[in-house]
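[SOLVED] Need 3D model of a two-part complex

Original post:
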Amino acid sequence: MTTTNPSKATALRTHTCGELNASHAGQTVTLAGWNDVKRNHGGVLFINLRDLYGVTQVVAGPESPVFKTAEEAKSEYVLRVTGKVTLRPGTNANKNMPTGEIEIEASEITVLNPSQPLPFELSEHAGVSEETRLKYRFLDLRMPRMARNMVLRSRLSQVVRNYLYGLDFNEVETPLLTRSTPEGARDFVVPSRNKAGEFYALPQSPQQFKQVLMMSGMDRYFQLARNFRDEELRSDRQPEHTQIDMEMSFVNEQDVARVVEGLMKAVFAHIGDEISAPFPELEYSDVMLKYGIDKPDLRYALEIKDCSEIFKTSGFKVFSETLAGGGVVRAIKGEKAAAFSRGDMDKLTDLVKSRGAKGLVWLRFKEGKWESPTLKFMTEPELSGLKTLLDVNEGDAVFLAADKPEVAAPCLGALRLELIARLKPAPAKKWAFLWVRHFPLLEKDAESGAWTFTHNPFTAPLPGEEGKLDTDPGNVLSCQYDLVLNGVELGSGSVRNHSRPMQEKIFGLMGYDKEQVQRRFGMIVNAMDFGAPPHGGIGIGYDRLIGIICGTDSIRDVIAFPKTTSGSCLMSEAPSILDEKQLKELHLKITED
Amino acid sequence: MTTTNPSKATALRTHTCGELNASHAGQTVTLAGWNDVKRNHGGVLFINLRDLYGVTQVVAGPESPVFKTAEEAKSEYVLRVTGKVTLRPGTNANKNMPTGEIEIEASEITVLNPSQPLPFELSEHAGVSEETRLKYRFLDLRMPRMARNMVLRSRLSQVVRNYLYGLDFNEVETPLLTRSTPEGARDFVVPSRNKAGEFYALPQSPQQFKQVLMMSGMDRYFQLARNFRDEELRSDRQPEHTQIDMEMSFVNEQDVARVVEGLMKAVFAHIGDEISAPFPELEYSDVMLKYGIDKPDLRYALEIKDCSEIFKTSGFKVFSETLAGGGVVRAIKGEKAAAFSRGDMDKLTDLVKSRGAKGLVWLRFKEGKWESPTLKFMTEPELSGLKTLLDVNEGDAVFLAADKPEVAAPCLGALRLELIARLKPAPAKKWAFLWVRHFPLLEKDAESGAWTFTHNPFTAPLPGEEGKLDTDPGNVLSCQYDLVLNGVELGSGSVRNHSRPMQEKIFGLMGYDKEQVQRRFGMIVNAMDFGAPPHGGIGIGYDRLIGIICGTDSIRDVIAFPKTTSGSCLMSEAPSILDEKQLKELHLKITED
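Solution:
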């Protein structure tokens, strides 16, 4: 962490613990910070005094008037030290420490606050449970890695904002006490005291408000917005999370993409990485075919190939019957995977079965020959076709799945990720961005069998696809796009419906009649009546972005005060019970079930 | 609104409606925007096309292929216009319009979206009720004044952030789902689905988290933070509001003041106003004496004077008995207020009586002579003493209140504001900032009679005052300060307790035993055990600041989607009822009372 501003002098310090160097030699300075490490070398005390900006060595010899205080100062005591900056003798200089050329000969030490012994050592390697870290988050955040994460998160938000301000976006704060609307997940709600039995909802996203802002002529909106979802939590989910939320008027998909690409370039430039734009784009249908997942990690080239053509006259019943029934045969190559044992192959087979496949066909190519339990069912032309299509070389293995396309894709997608995990191919690049475009507008709800939106009820059909709404709604492509980074869905957005008849037609397909549309989405459809401009936007997960940049698997490491997976804050002990008076004022009673 | 970035070209426009001028003459351009005004001059149609950035005149002659579309376009239709930029003939140029030198000869007009007739005219002078404006907020925000407010609010937040980043502050997002703590106002709460009967609270401020951040070594924190209070609303209150929240380690009151003054200089420089710093500082006790209110509007010099000395031997019973009982006689001058009628004087008397005064003594100085119903009770030396003390001149009036100091102060404070409102003195400056310092640490709770904090339970006593905690708690001065601008309390902050024993002693005076402190404030006192640094900070009301700068009395005019005074959003119709399933999941039942 570098000190960009030299004037952080306050009543209690003249400098920070990160800024002194040889040029300050001879000056009398006052520092304040924490006793990070203390050593006694032949009767001389050395204290590493730490603050956010660095560490400075403080020295007190046995004759020093401050020796006694220095001796009594325990770990994490808050100290104020006045003394002379002196050059360390050449051999003692520490080149690995920005302040390593100097030390402070203390003439005055004040204990500003003592500390109890810590419940754990402030070290990455102390093996502390996350539960303990979260309970004592104020100590956990003193760890350099965590402090760096917080500072980087802050600084990158400045980069994000200044980039968007530079494009004349305005940040508009949308309400957090708003109305419950069915947008997929469960809402957190807030009981109203004034209106018995009524509730506000915390927003799952500012979606409707940002669209209304476009209708109010705001032209270009953004917000680092707090979103809330009352869902079961996982390591990459929190009940509240932050999103870089954007919306623009008079745009198409490409306009939004260019703005986002510029934003990502700016963010990654800040950490010293140059990324190239425009990002690759893939159709949703292609991405499912090639990678079996809608957020492929394109750091790895590995692709799924369709072999239906190769096996169209196959004598292997598993293949021929699948193909006859409208299914597909698809394959993926595992480079150097011929070394996999029979046991490995069984595990991979179990993996694809757990995703719904009936089985997995595998072939190893070893010493110029194929080997496989199912080799006998394959002809020479089929094997040679496979070898060519997948560019199979000595030591590789091939995995085939025969199934309905909607089963083959996720099975081979999961297999692809497992192969990457096991074979650890060298990534082709550090940061692999990708646009996935043109998701289907609608899909059948698994439970009710009715049409529902795949991503967002406000997404517009792709121009030219509107006609299919009447004849073939399940195959209407949409203006919905996802931004993927290194296999993580970083953002999701679309060009929206701006015409009320079109929006109502889509709601109609989802089973909402006019009255229900008015009740559930009244604000936005009413606004469409009065000159709504064409518009589109995106929401980018800020916690995820920072998590990827900081190289952590858990977004809890980039959130100052996160919740556990059961939704608790172990430090503040939220949530907690209310007293009867508060409940009564809110017209509420707790039920036992 | 000026266009700072020229490249807002998108798929649907080459330029905005605010950027074309004579230098573009001859170019073919495409604009998109709203039909703001349409006129027909001798068969030629003129459309003022509007977007956020400005208005451009579009022309379609009777022979034009686009005439028919132009003719059919009604008010607020969204249009896309392609045409040639042409210079307006000299006499037709409009110097008051940034694009007034040119117009667009339309060769193509597309209706991107029609509009229903608006429910009200988009004009400041249309006399629309606020209720209608809030219901159709998406139209209200199209008004130039409202759009300007939103853009300025956005841009000033950038100024705020960049200033603070420049001083190495980091913005840290603190949780919104947190724990209910007694900090004055009522909390909004959020029922937990996972933990039956438990609730999160929305924060009234990030107070405890920002202090914990200091204890975690964050050094300098800020956040444009959303705060929530479930209180009765007024025009300057909203259930959610935004605060520039800051905290710094190793500081005293003056360090915080310098940072805030620099921030205000930066903000006002952005609107072209230079303000001088450091700001004046007044002790709380002085400010109550001189202005009768803790947030005086110092644009006006008018001061309250103590006349107890003048009347110490008064024969006027009202005065002598008050003084004998430990009360005071204080006076304020109304310049040119001798013109006030007897009726006016009665109204002013009613005003101070409504604030608890027993009455109001007034004297007019007209044609060199005093006149007053109570003149007969005053001696010549008293009158001349009054004249000198208050610098009374021909045509002035003097108002006196005799009462206990704690009654006299607010009564004359209210009178001072009323005199300013009636006499409309010229303000001495446009922006009058003031620090009010050293509020009492504790006061008696009006209901319970117990000691409670005056501003903030975490405020430290003023150094040197600690001893009085044991002997005279009501007179302990604190490190609490308020920032006042033009008579509005803009911010409030303090240097905090960093020592657990001191914090517990103060909680003890408020009647909390150790167990209660642990239960209610466990997070912060626990953190104090492990090396909490001295720290202080402030929270500045961002809505209020922007309201003052935009010159509006209602903060609703600077919030995109505000609530009414009954806490409703008329546009989204929040709050609303939940369905039974949701309530059941939350383990809640609505009670009838």
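Edit: Chain B touches chain A through 136 residues (CB under 8 Å).
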